[in-house]
Design a protein that fits this description.
The structure is a single chain. By secondary structure, the chain is an alpha+beta fold. The chain has 19 helices and 11 strands. A 7-stranded antiparallel sheet has the order 4-3-2-1-7-6-5. Strands 8-9 form a two-stranded antiparallel ribbon. The longest helix has about 35 residues. About 30% of the residues are buried.
Length: about 550
């Protein structure tokens, strides 16, 4: 914004904000004008004590708290659209939209029986004038932009609904809100006037801002897409030249609904702060603020979910596998690199944690992924592993599909993953317990089968059962039931296992075969030496980190 001198003849101020202070330009001269209006025409010109440029700063000190700095006026193409920073962007937006002024005459609230304007009067006036400007600009958006674009036959049918969302319905609600504010503030204002009750009945309708704000990023993307169309670009150029649009482009108007709810909260907080608890409007204003905060929280949550769904879609599109990640209930939680201990060597894998799913694979160039496994979290269990000289920052992942060991680069990364995964697992299991309660089952009974933890090839040189050493002719094999390393002679049987996603039988060792078929008693399932060797996988010196 170009700064200029105040229009008052005696004022030497060189900083003004025309969108708030109109013809008087600087805050101090504007305050003098308010005092003059409050004193009435019969009081004559304002006294030197209130109009002198030397005393203006102290007179308007309390009002300057609302607008502490003049807003920037560069174009809205750089306006932040991050939804998680909605409130910050609404108060500190760099959009040019804040430079617009209303051309409608404004009637200031007058404090009857007092020659001074109170801070509460000024906030109420700002609520009215800002609402009038907002309704005027939304009418421009609908009449000058939306209406002519609807007449274009060559635009995709889905473009305008995404771009303008429910702006027509929002405008209807705000027109009604403006009517009520004008009735209370402009026509009937007094020190005891109430406006909270007028706002209270309309606050629930402001929830429609949730859909608009959540789709704001998509709206900006649709504008970029529309600008590739010659007819759309011609309408935009014509609108820009229209005096009614005040030289602003469509982005300057589309950002305003995103800013409006946080603006209401700020003004209501200031209004309550300067309203005595004994005032007849105090209780209603507090109720309105509480409901407005709920609306703001709903908007922030809708934005967070919208961005989260976009993240899930991005991951799915970056996958080279035919994997379906989009689901109504699925939310992205965490991503990062972990080292996975495999049967032959340790491998770097890229992991994604969702609210109900745990997937991993390879990170490829150009941010592409090739996923190798999906693990539902409702069948997942985690166990921490103590640090050893050969293996640090590790934990075990058990599930019905696959069990394995991973380790991180630092202790903090390991803790972050453990906390995030445990939180998601417990939430899912708690939901499942609720469903199973009516059937008389427990979560442990439904998911009692876990895939075994395979012993890495380098962890044993002899068969776990016959103790004969492995060689070129006597090869290593993994029992799919217990994960131990055995030779071919000790794993010649096969069975269907519930932990294997296959209709074919898989290799099992003779000991597991006897236990699963009932030929061997359960207490003779695995001898202590084998059990200890299986649990010692994580401490084997062959698992040294790369």
């Amino acid at each position: 914004m170009n700064y200029s001198s105040c229009k008052e003849p005696k004022c030497t101020c060189t900083s003004f904000e025309p969108q708030f202070y109109k013809d008087y330009k600087c805050k101090e001269c504007f305050h003098d004008a308010l005092c003059h209006l409050a004193s009435g025409a019969s009081s004559g010109p304002s006294s030197p004590s209130s109009s002198s440029p030397l005393l203006k700063k102290s007179n308007f000190q309390s009002s300057s708290k609302i607008y502490s700095s003049p807003p920037s006026t560069h174009t809205t193409s750089n306006t932040s659209s991050s939804a998680l920073n909605l409130k910050k962007s609404a108060y500190n937006s760099t959009s040019k939209v804040n430079t617009t002024t209303t051309t409608s005459p404004t009637t200031r609230p007058e404090s009857k029986g007092d020659s001074s304007i109170t801070h509460r009067d000024r906030v109420a006036m700002e609520l009215l004038t800002s609402e009038r400007t907002y309704v005027e600009n939304m009418s421009i958006l609908v009449d000058c932009f939306y209406a002519p674009l609807k007449l274009l036959p060559d635009l995709p049918s889905s473009l305008l609904p995404v771009m303008f969302s429910n702006i027509v319905d929002i405008l209807k609600v705000n027109k009604e809100l403006l009517t009520r504010l004008e009735e209370r503030i402009q026509n009937q204002w007094s020190p005891t006037q109430r406006i909270g009750d007028a706002l209270l009945s309309l606050t629930p309708f402001l929830k429609m801002y949730t859909n608009y704000t959540a789709g704001y990023d998509a709206a900006m993307a649709s504008v970029l897409e529309g600008e590739k169309n010659a007819s759309f670009a011609a309408v935009m150029a014509k609108c820009f030249e229209d005096p009614a649009t005040k030289g602003l482009n469509i982005r300057s108007f589309l950002i305003q609904p995103v800013q409006r709810i946080p603006r209401y909260n700020m003004l209501l907080q200031d209004l309550i702060k300067h309203t005595a608890p004994s005032h007849p409007d105090y209780v209603d204003l507090c109720l309105v603020l509480d409901k407005m905060k709920v609306v703001a929280n709903d908007i922030n949550e809708a934005i967070r979910q919208s961005e989260n769904r976009a993240k899930v879609l991005t991951i799915q599109n970056a996958s080279l596998n035919s994997i379906e990640l989009i689901a109504p209930h699925r939310m992205f939680v965490k991503e990062g690199t972990l080292y996975k201990i495999c049967r032959r060597t340790n491998k770097i894998r890229y992991f994604f944690l969702f609210s109900d799913l745990f997937i991993y694979g390879d990170l490829l160039p150009n941010n592409k992924y090739r996923f190798t496994k999906q693990i539902p979290l409702d069948t997942c269990r985690l166990e921490d592993l103590p640090d050893t000289p050969s293996l640090q920052f590790a934990f075990q992942v058990f599930s019905s599909q696959k069990s394995f060991i991973v380790f991180a680069e630092t202790q903090q990364i390991k803790l972050d993953w453990l906390i995030a995964m445990n939180t998601m697992c417990e939430k899912l299991k708690e939901k499942r317990r609720t469903f199973l309660l009516g059937d008389g089952k427990t979560i442990e009974e439904e998911f009692k089968a876990e895939a075994p933890m395979w012993v890495p090839d380098q962890a044993a040189n002899d068969c776990s059962l016959c103790q004969i050493g492995f060689s070129v002719l006597r090869r290593r094999h993994h029992c799919r039931a217990c994960g131990m390393l055995v030779c071919n002679s000790c794993s010649s049987q096969s069975l269907l296992l519930p932990t294997i996603d296959s209709k074919s039988k898989v290799r099992v060792c003779t000991q597991c075969y006897g236990v699963l078929t009932g030929a061997t008693p359960l207490d003779e399932e695995i001898n202590p030496e084998l059990s200890s060797s299986s649990s010692a996988v994580s401490t084997s010196p062959d698992f040294s980190t790369p």
